[in-house]
Amino acid sequence: MTTKKTDTALAGGSILRRRRRFGERIIESWIILAGLLSIVVLLGIIVLLFKEGMPIFLDTPPWEFLFGTRWYPVSEPPTFGIMPFFVSTFWITLVATLIAVPVGIACAAYLAEVAPDKVRETVKPIIEILAGFPSVVMGFLGLMLLSPLVRSMFNLNTGLTGLTAGIMLAMMSFPIIVSVSEDALRAVPDSFRQGSYALGATRWETIRHVSIPAALSGIAAAIMLGVGRAIGETMTVLMVAGGALAVPVSPAEQMMPMTAAIASGIGNAVRGGLQYQALFAIGLILFLITLAVNLIADRVLERQKRKFTR
Amino acid sequence: MNFKRKKRELFILTLLLMTSLFVGLSGCSSDSETSTEETQGTSGSFKIIGSNTVEPLSVLWAEDFMKANPDVSIAISGPGSGVGIAALIDGTTDIAQASRPMKSSEYDQARGKGRDPVEITVAMDALSVVVHPSNPVSELTIAQLSGIFSGRITNWNEVGGNDVPIVALSRDTNSGTHVFFKEHVVQMRGTDKEDKTLEYGTKVLLLPSTKEGVDEVAGNENAIFYPGLGYLTDEVKPLAIKATLGSPGVLPSVETAQDGSYPISRGLYYYTDGEPTGIIKAFIDYCLSTEGQKRVTESGYVPLK
User: Fold this and answer.
1) What is the pTM of this model?
2) What Å distances lie between residue B297 and B85, B126, B230, B266, B282, CA to CA?
3) B49 and B102 co-located in one domain
């Protein structure tokens, strides 16, 4: 009797276990599949960028492509020099960074160190909503509100300048910088602050000499993420940067950054033609730049984590 | 054991994904090469490929035509005039739509492949040149426009205006209009001063849409832009254009474009292989009918007559 009972119980248990193992394996492989898919898609994008972009270097040597200042893709014969786009991207990113970083870090320091909990809990989500605004809306705001303002303030011919685009991009990378550096500042152990206060430091001295240096790698990562956003942004710069093909010598000029150059040319580019290849090559270079920025940010963030898990 | 099996599963999964990706990719690249069989008359479906300037017009006509003939299906795409003509030469489209006439080299290529391209002008397009209403300049010659857009004239006082810099606005290279304006105005095609080495100046602003250019001119008294007739509003002032210094200035309008006195206008064309027959002939007849030409006016282009 007893043996029989245990037998059936055992048998039932093993069926159940086998069934569960089977279901688990399906789910497991789904998760693996999902994880692999993102890697495969990434590899696919890289392969595609290389495959479509590299052939341009058979027509235009790499140094001429990178340092050439004339971009006339629809002329006979076409010339492809991306220096104007490269310099434009540099100026716009610089303006965006110079505005967003100081303000962003100050805002993060206020939220993490000074603001009462209630203020932080309401302000931070609002700032994060700003990050979710579609870039075309930001472009429209730049066109309607900011560009006339920039034009009259700096007495320019037109308000469509790299400066205008930079200010709009600053507003777009600002929430990322605030959000990530606030998290970094809050990860600094409270004992650091207590120690600083115990030595007689004021709140400002504590923020400046203790909290910010301790969170520096996290803040650096925040800056990198913000910069990455500014480099890759397309719609806003396409709408407000002005789109001139000269190599800009100051941010107050009209310019066309790399992303806008791709967007404004791809519609008319013949598939597999020279212009098409050149645009893919710009995409490839842009991809390498943002990849480098993201890798640096990742490395720095990793260091921050290690510092406090010791 | 278990670990090894997992590793193998992983490998197989990766392989599967890779193959599916490659199949997908090769599928993409090959479908542009496969040619559709000639569909004439009876089958009730045909393709129009070419200019993105003509595309909105073709879409309007095709919608009307398909509403009247529910069994007909028309596929339209607008990658550019050159692409459409190449497709006609390769036999992968039934109609090529173009905002420029076919070049003689393209005719030679077509004949080499046994095609017989027939040109049908389906509508006209006139580009107005607009400035801010407060700008005292009211007419310009083609040569002056060329100077402005190639960057040789940079101040309005060089063409009889105030002492303020010129802000020249253009469409970006996505637009067929960019090329048309470059060839006919910047390079002055058809005049004795024609110079094929001239390009847009590097200070010219390339804008992503015609609407944005008109808005900028409406708010900037130094700006100049070249929208199509359909984009004219009361907030901007169209300039009278003189073909040469001695000729009279002509304001852009449907009439002056039709009688050819306005210098910056062009034909919009359909090309077919041989005289159109069957369903394609019926479609083109509709485009050229009074009702079809009414659609041309509605979409901002110039009807034939």
Assistant:
1) 0.74
2) 25, 12, 8, 15, 21
3) yes
